[in-house]
């Protein structure tokens, strides 16, 4: 059981990063549906950098840059050129998918070099790792997992305890009012879209570098979309996003576990579970009408100063 | 940004509009060329091969049209939903479910006379595709559930389900252990007309039908109004929920029909990968065509050239066919961005500082 829960954390980590990334983007008022594409771009660039340089840090950096780069295109087209966010996000997914299979084609079947996999090997945190039950589950993981925890904590602090976070939420709630009070709306939108995209890129990199350390072009398989759904499920709260992502990570490895335990279930039917669960969550979320569970009021609207 | 003066255009003539649109396409081609250069490819040769590979010989032209058929019909389906601002991303799943229903009919009623069997397969496929779109539609109508994620998840559910059938209960015992569904009987295969399977006739027929549905029927008008504003539609006394559901049945039904065509004429059986990305590409083509049915037909032909050319690139030059989707994405980014220049006029004004100086002087 402990091993299964520890594996849930590993399976959930890419979702944590992508979900928090999309959450930050949405809090600033932009609905970027290109998560799947940005994760793929991060995955392929991270893997490529790891394979070609053997440097784990360069791999991570390239993944963040690739995800952020994808997001920058989205920002340019929607914030500056005011195009429809839904369609632009979808295009980013198509672009990212093509980009990943194009760049990744020559690397199919290659594995992550040893220097990188050693760097991302599991390590027990001092003291925390020795806590009974919780230690082995949460604190005997790889660096990336600890980074994901940090991202959740820091984003909570940023969103709810800092001036910048407050301003950013104001932009997402009512861009016109934020602008009137002197907040540089365009800058805030760009910064958070790109930062969110970088996190999505890192989520993709986790899949390609650690989850499945051999390149295959369909590493992400819908996790980007699950991340978009998790933001709704988490009611735009990073802590709830962490819980949701780990839960979904668990669902995605449930099939293998059940088979290992001797249940003769078809793997393909069990593979359906996370997607069905996402649907259920989206339906349940649409039913909740509590005030604190609502999306940022300006989500999905482009801001035109001239039309104020 | 004070030196840029952005003003709303009120009247844009056809000529200016054409210039801006053409410019966007040209720039997007230049930009995708640059991307190719970065990856060490020769863009001129790539573009040449794409054209050669899609139009070079009679056989390749036929292949291009064969790829345009599913793309066009799917895009028409997507168009009906998008017109209503219902983001149907579930084309893939609706195609797969259509193929599943068509396969069920083909494998169980293979003795029926060909025309009856084919009509039955098409009907079953449209019902199944429509049903797959109906589920998210009814939730959207009743509870306001986010349809983007719902329809998308339905894709994965459908694909996993057909994979399950293919590897499980529907696996052909005569395939020597290969996870394949039994091949369709001869009666279940679409006939060939002028060297291409009859799906192309259906594609043209659907284009005309959807064009008239959107332009000259009450339902088409209602769909457009719902897309523009729920409030207006409600004020006009329209039954919004009913319109959403009916439009999604049409949308999913068309995608389901694509599943039947592909299963019957291309794969001649049921495979999980039957939709091969048409459901996603169709979103782009429908949008590029500005949700106009006739324009959709032509945009889909152009994109079918990209797909067929991409496949040729892979064979002839050993360049991954995904190049085509990178080009697709780039083109759409530019077209999306160009809308801005259709709505706004951008003037580079003198620095505001300078003008005030003059005034002072």
TrEMBL record, chain A:
Keywords of the record: Cell membrane, Membrane, Transmembrane, Transmembrane helix
Residues spanning the membrane: 34-51, 58-81, 87-104, 143-160, 193-214, 220-236, 241-259, 265-284
GO CC entries: plasma membrane
Transferase recorded as keyword: no
Topology in membrane: Multi-pass membrane protein
Keyword Transmembrane helix found: yes
Entry protein name: ABC transporter permease
UniProtKB/TrEMBL annotation, chain B:
Highest taxon of the lineage: Bacteria
Gene Ontology terms, MF aspect: transmembrane transporter activity
InterPro entries on file: ABC_transp_permease (IPR001851)
Main location: membrane
Pfam families, per the entry: BPD_transp_2 (PF02653)
Membrane topology: Multi-pass membrane protein
Keywords: Cell membrane, Membrane, Transmembrane, Transmembrane helix
Entry keyword annotation includes Transmembrane: yes
Annotated localization: Cell membrane
TM ranges: 20-41, 61-82, 94-110, 116-137, 149-168, 188-213, 243-263, 269-289, 296-315, 321-342
UniProt name for this protein: ABC transporter permease
Cellular component terms per the entry's GO annotation: plasma membrane
